[in-house]
Every structure is written in C-alpha cells, then in structure tokens.
Amino acid sequence: MNPMKCALMAGLSALLLSMAACSKADEELASVAPEAPKDTTVVTPVDNNDDLTPGTDARPTWQAASDLYQRYEQTMTAQVTVQKELLPYVSADDLLCVTVNDEIRCVSPARYNNGEWTFPLIIAGMGNDRFLSVSYYCAKLTRIYKLERWVLFSQSFQPTQEYGRPHTIHFF
Predict the structure, then answer these.
(1) Which residue of 5, 86, 97, 100 has the fewest C-beta atoms within 10 A of its own C-beta?
(2) Residue 110 pLDDT > 70, yes or no?
(3) What value, to the nearest 5°, has the Cα angle with vertex 89 and ends 87 and 95?
(4) Rounded distance, CA 152 to CA 133, Å?
(5) pLDDT of residue 13
(6) What is the rounded distance in angstroms from the CA atom of residue 107 to the CA atom of residue 134?
(7) Pairing of strands 95-100, 103-109
(8) Going edge to edge, which strands form the sheet with 95-100?
(9) Is the separation of the CB atoms in 169 and 150 below 8 Å?
(10) Checking phi first, is residue 133 left (phi over 0); if not, alpha (psi -120 to 50) or beta?
(11) What confidence tier does 11 reach under pLDDT thresholds 50, 70, 90?
(12) Measured between alpha carbons, how far is 52 from 145 in angstroms, rounded to an integer?
C-alpha cells in the first residue's frame, strides 16, 4: 500500500475513533443530567401540619393577558421557591401566579433545575404598582396557598437572593 494511502487511512481511523469517543462522552453526560422526579403521589404529612393536609382545590386556569408585556412599561424578574415544608410536594404540575390588584401579571410552572424546584418569574408592571400577591397551586396536595402583599413591585428587585439562591416564599 502506498504511504499516502496509509497516512490517509490512519488519519481517518483516528477521526472515527475520536468521534465515537465524543459520542460516548455526550451520552454519558446526558444520562447524568438531573431529571425532574416523576412521582406524583401525595406524600403523607409527617408533622400533622394542617397546612399540609390534602385539599380539594381544582387546578386553577390562571392565564396572563396575551398583550401583558405591551401594556406595562416595566418588568420585575425573580426566581423563587416555596418554603421547606412544601418542597417535598412540589411537582411539574404546580403553578405560581403573581397578581397586582387582582390582575394576573405572571404565571409560572415549577421547573426542576440543578436538583431543585424553582419558579422563574417575569412580572409585568409599572412604577406606581404597589404590593404583589402570590398564589401557589400544589398539585400533590390539591391546594392553593395565597400570600397577600408579598413584596413591592420594583425593577431593581434582585432576580435571586445572595449567592444566586432563589427567593423563598413563606405561605404559612
């Protein structure tokens, strides 16, 4: 075999081997990526807390207006999570709704990222808006939790707390 063909064959073999190795590494990385827990069964409360007792609330049909971000000149961005007592019950079926004077300004499903459940919020508003209220639907507990007057609307509100941790909302 001529030396040029040998060099070409060796180069092609090395390229194919490296592609196979990269493909294998990508598959291994993909299998390590965290997935949202798929368990949707209700967990029995461990501390007999009435706030964790399963309810009968239907899944809400919260929807923000389609032109919401065109009607308001500002947005407030935040990443939030629920208090530790509710964390075992969070699932992909949960919703968080932010209102100002009973007008829906943001609806967000729960997202599982880096091993924790969070709700990314982009809240439409104006400088003269006051307190934001929050409602949280927990699918596993079939309950809606509400917190009136959570925080003031502010464009300068930090998207996350110190060290990039999500803001924790305490409903009880």
Answers:
(1) 5
(2) yes
(3) 90
(4) 9
(5) 55
(6) 10
(7) antiparallel
(8) 103-109, 95-100, 131-138, 143-152
(9) yes
(10) beta
(11) low
(12) 10
Tokens, residue 134: 């929050």
Compute the distance between CA of residue 128 and CA of residue 11 in angstroms, rounded to an integer: 67
Query: Which strand (E) or helix (H) includes residue 25?
Result: helix 3-32
Q: Return the structure tokens found at 100.
A: 């100002």
Q: Which single residue is written with the structure tokens 């407030």?
A: 76
Of 79, 43, 51, 102, the residue nearest 161 (C-alpha)? 79
Tokens for 11, please give them. Answer: 């180069």
Note the pTM of the prediction, 2 decimals.
0.74
Lowest mean pLDDT among 1-5, 12-16, 118-122: 12-16
pLDDT at 43 (0 to 100): 61
Q: How far apart are CA 4 and CA 160, in angstroms?
A: 60
Domain boundaries, the chain: 1-33, 50-169
| Dist CA 101 CA 172 (whole Å) | 22
Mean pLDDT (the chain, rounded): 83
Helix (H) or strand (E) holding 70: helix 68-71
**Fold category of 50-169 in CATH:** Immunoglobulin-like (2.60.40)
Is the Cβ–Cβ distance between 110 and 92 less than 8 Å?
yes
Write down the pLDDT at residue 23: 45
Under 8 Å between Cβ of 134 and 83: no
